[in-house]
Amino acid sequence: MKTTTPxxxxxxxxxxxxxxxxxxxxxxxxxxxxxxxxxxxxxxYKSKKYxxxxxxxxxxxxxxxxxxxVSFYFKYRVLKKASSHHNRLLDFxxxxxYFVSKLNEKGGQAFAYDPFYSQVxxxxxxxxxxxxxxxxxxTSKFKIVTMWHSLEHVFSYKDTLSxxxxxxxxxxxxxxxxxxxxxxxxxYYKEYWAGFDVPRHYWHFSPNGLIEIMANSGFDYINKKxxxxxxxxxSMLSEQYKKSKLWFFKGLAVGxxxxxxxxxxxxxxxxxxxxxxxx
Length: 279
Fold this sequence. Notes:
Layout: E1 8-10, E2 18-23, E3 29-33, H1 59-82, E4 88-92, H2 98-105, E5 109-113, E6 130-131, E7 142-148, H3 157-167, E8 168-179, H4 184-189, E9 203-205, H5 207-216, E10 219-226, H6 228-241, H7 247-265, E11 270-277
Parallel strand pairs: 4-5, 4-7, 5-6, 7-8
Antiparallel strand pairs: 1-2, 2-3, 3-9, 8-11, 10-11
Helix pairs in contact: 6-7
């Protein structure tokens, strides 16, 4: 199946505003236009439906929490294979800091960064223990930085990767998870694909596109692993955007097909990538 990326995508999650998705020249990376400035983007997160920040009691939120619980152990295995989980770790764009809290329960030395932590209602650690300004990170050093579906949210991926390089120790590990706009489910849902999540997602990466910008920022690619639950969750959410009455079953079916296709086409809905700082 040939990948066809839509040029116009609506914010089905919240405002119903329409944005453009434009390819960056010479890169397998798309950007959302117009680019919402840092001061204005906050309003696009202010919703009880934004599940990484709120306790919204619905069937879908319960499903999200279950996937989050299962996903932690997948992330934990990735982390242990990449580096010792006892090393100092920063989770960049931590949401409600669930990953950090669970990691510390297992004896880790994990810290959270999220500029929107003050508006999170389902906090898992005390607010004073969370970095909320990038400037506060400069004086710290970490052996590992994780970005679980957060790199696509940053205003400038170049600036963010430069910051990650600055706060990482020599040969430090950078772990990044993000959606793949070349996946089967992205191509199936097109403008309804929840992985676009405009304008909260400034950037849209393919595996090759992400690996290339990482190399340009001084990070060497080690490996990647598919995140199979993401295909199911994103497909169900996409079916809701299409106002499907059978969103659970249709989304489950498309997500399963997407995962099956990814075994042969290597185009999973989302991947987690492991990189090493070059110097």
